[in-house]
Amino acid sequence: MDYFDAVVLGIVEGLTEFLPVSSTGHLTIAEKALGLDVDDPAVTAYTAVIQMGAILAVVVYFARDIARIATAWARGLFDAELRGTVDHRMGWYVIVGSIPIGLAGLLLKDLITGDLRSLWVVAVALIAWSSVLWLAERVATQERSEKELTLRDAVVVGCVQIFSLVPGVSRSGATISAGLFLGLDRLTATRLSFFLSIPALLAAGVYELPEALDGSLDVGPMIVGAVVAFLVAYASVAWLLKFVAHHTIAWFIPYRIALGVIILVLLGAGVISAT
Fold this sequence. Notes:
By secondary structure, the protein is mainly α. Helices cover about 70% and strands about 0% of the residues. It contains twelve helices and no strands.
């Protein structure tokens, strides 16, 4: 993998990680286009590491919120009067809501890095989960704000986040949809999606880091890819929060379906291979 590959994948990761279009699916497509072996463990490890650049963008963007939540959570462990505050509860919600995908990631690692890394899976998931996005917006009441979040919401959204392990589904697409089904307003669902992404992506990056540094990948391109992902992801996060305040996530459905159909046509015609 050279610096050109690193920049391209960094841009793709930064643009798609937090939009409901599936970063893993787009990275798989980009890797195929660049002639990389998507089944190579080193490529999988590289993908997880540059995701850390994207997640750092979320940490920086929400730094004040994260600091406030972390402080309230820690203080609430010793001060009973603080345990009912929104920030203290949010700390627990992020911790508990991150457990399902952590367990699923460990138990299903071989499947995630193996059979699911197929463009057939990506194409079908892009199209199929679009119906979930559409239905979520159709039934959404958006009557509940961040102050009304409950532990049940965090658990449900955290469990639905497991579906994002399937390339093509999209982490934000899965979690925002779940939030809308639960009656959360779109901005609250999106913020919860961002907060839950931090432990999940950070854990995946740390887990894959030893393999990425074992000599199979050059450190230079890896750093460049992570930096590019950070810069692009920061802009994407800022844009998405403004977008969902006034628009539905259904706007992303035509793109998802069109991309899925194009991939299926190219696969069926034998122009590209699935793996």
